[in-house]
Amino acid sequence: MKFKFFQYFFSTRLMIILMILFPFAMALGTFLESWYSTEAARIWIYNAWWFELLMAMLVVCFLANIAKHNLLAKGKRVVLVMHLSFILILLGAFITRYFGDEGVMPIRENTISNTYLSEKTYLTVLVDGEKEGEPLRKTLNKRLLLSEYTNNNLEIDKKFNKEKF
């Protein structure tokens, strides 16, 4: 029983709970998006640490079910494909979250465009000062998710020429 820990911890009950929580959270995110804003839904649901944990636990549960029920056997290939498809969908969500980019690319008829407007909001701060008598500029970029429904406090704790600003 090399998978005893996974079989115990990631049991069928946990899988059922996760399979109920996951669509509930996505539905809640959809309603929040229509009630408030897309940014609020991203902050509260889609970019929250607990939503990522929920997806990771689902992947581990699917993998544990493949091992627990020996879905690699010849007669269980259809169920194996179903489990692998869910894993592939969740892995796609992870890749999209960390490496994807979202934006708008307006293209008029008979034109070509190689630029787009990203949905990400950045704050760029230029700090001017001197270091050993030489004028110097430090540029700081910080990604922000701003919404009127969330806490928008911003702190930049940096040093310039050994002085905090």
Salient structural properties:
165 residues, alpha+beta, 2 domains, two-stranded antiparallel sheet, two-stranded antiparallel ribbon, 6 strands
How are the secondary structure elements laid out?
Layout: H1 4-9, H2 12-35, H3 38-46, H4 49-68, H5 77-99, E1 103-104, E2 117-118, E3 121-131, E4 134-144, E5 159-160, E6 163-164
Could you give a quick summary of the protein structure above?
By secondary structure, the chain is an alpha+beta fold.
Task: Outline the structure in words.
With 165 residues, the protein is an alpha+beta fold. The chain has 2 domains: 4-103; 117-152, no CATH class. The protein has 5 helices and 6 strands; from the N terminus they run αααααββββββ. It has helices spanning 4-9, 12-35, 38-46, 49-68, 77-99, and strands spanning 103-104, 117-118, 121-131, 134-144, 159-160, 163-164. Strands 1-2 form a two-stranded antiparallel ribbon. The chain has a two-stranded antiparallel sheet with strand order 3-4. The chain has a two-stranded antiparallel sheet with strand order 5-6. Helix 2 runs antiparallel to helix 3.
Number of strands: 6
Mean pLDDT: 83
Radius of gyration: 23 Å
Instruction: Name the shape in a single word.
Output: elongated
Count structural domains. 2
Task: Identify low-pLDDT runs.
Answer: none
User: Structural class, from helix and strand content?
Assistant: alpha+beta
Give the termini distance in whole angstroms: 58 Å
Encode the helix/strand succession as letters: HHHHHEEEEEE
Fraction in helix: 40-55%
Strand order, biggest sheet?
A: 1-2
Largest sheet: 2 strands, antiparallel
Query: In what range is the share of β-strand residues?
Result: 15-25%
Number of helices: 5
